[in-house]
Model the fold of this input.
Amino acid sequence: MTTTVLLVDDHPVVRSGLRAVLESDSVHVVGEAATGEEAVALAAHLHPDVVLCDLRLGAGIDGVQTTAALRALEPAPAVLILTTFDRDAEILGAIEAGAAGYLLKDVAPDVIIEGILRAAGGDMFLAPDLADRVLKGMRNPLPKLTEREVEVLRLLATGASNKEMARALFVTEATVKSHIAHIFTKLSVDSRSRAIHVAQETGLI
Amino acid sequence: MTTTVLLVDDHPVVRSGLRAVLESDSVHVVGEAATGEEAVALAAHLHPDVVLCDLRLGAGIDGVQTTAALRALEPAPAVLILTTFDRDAEILGAIEAGAAGYLLKDVAPDVIIEGILRAAGGDMFLAPDLADRVLKGMRNPLPKLTEREVEVLRLLATGASNKEMARALFVTEATVKSHIAHIFTKLSVDSRSRAIHVAQETGLI
DNA sequence: CATTGCATCATCCGTTTGGGTGAGACTTTT
DNA sequence: AAAAGTCTCACCCAAACGGATGATGCAATG
Done:
């Protein structure tokens, strides 16, 4: 029995590649979507066994949000995340959103097929080089930042001074300092540069 | 007459996609390479009209170096850069290394084909949304940093303090401050965070 | 309704950073 | 040989930052 798959990627070339590589006795590609919104609409209609989804989708909702929306469908397809990057925060986000697995784009085609079949069977499937990191991430999850803190962190990452952030956010410098102090504590750092670094490394921003 | 093309990308899926998308009356894919080294070796042997090359090639030499090596062949193939990112420094690097053009991966297949044909004909071909930026980059080229300065900048971007950099580089803090002062001047910034930001934005690091 | 969490602001204080200036040693270029 | 560029270092000073502590208002949670 063949497993039906919906492809979600904003690059036409990648979709064609996946189609070419996946189509076989055991896997049948029933549709393609370029955005998360399109993916959800198509999945609701086509009922694929598995949705193979990029985490980075140019415009619109991102891969994590798409995963969550797909998993809320009835019946819910298994969602397999396929992407170029291995950012901890996003792996965890996708898994938490109900993804069955996570593969890097540079793996061999047969690994992807294997992942699809296992995802269709209800298995979890993680690229070996990532399993470790995911587990580590689960052991020391990054403390969650509040919306405001993320906002400050983003400004911080653009190189803004406290004064500039205060102006941009319509608050006093004291408030900005307060937010930054909290951010530093949560990220276990003691300088803006290091905060930027860990924020980027963990995919927090 | 058909134009012969060599594909260079570290992702098998992308290569398959490109092959599926490009193969036509006017374009014939004569080979695929996963690394820059492999690309040069194959190109020397297959003499393709055009090499379609990703800038980011997991292991080994990068796209810019590959471009330079390919252009040094006799006869030299036209090199068309195809990538996901639009980092100014790399665009310029590839153009300087002799690339005929630069396309983003999310463009439509027929745009890629058009780019290949024009590259084969000796034209320059830039994705429209990039041409502006390239020209801007040429008008305000980033002042070149010395090796030492780049080294300091990299450390800076990891969040290191002056003291830590001094230790890491076996110099005094005064020296580190001196380098940083020069970096700031060259990048026209006045804080470490902003230096990190422009360095990343311009692909300097 | 009490508690908790968030965002806001303040003051004090020590440390780090950034800016200016100058200078010696070594290499490459002219 | 002179000039230019790089890397190294030092000193001074003002501004920005980071840490500690505490307080207010407000919404959500229990």
Summary: The radius of gyration of chain A is 19 Å. The CA atoms of residues 162 and 201 of chain A lie 23 Å apart.
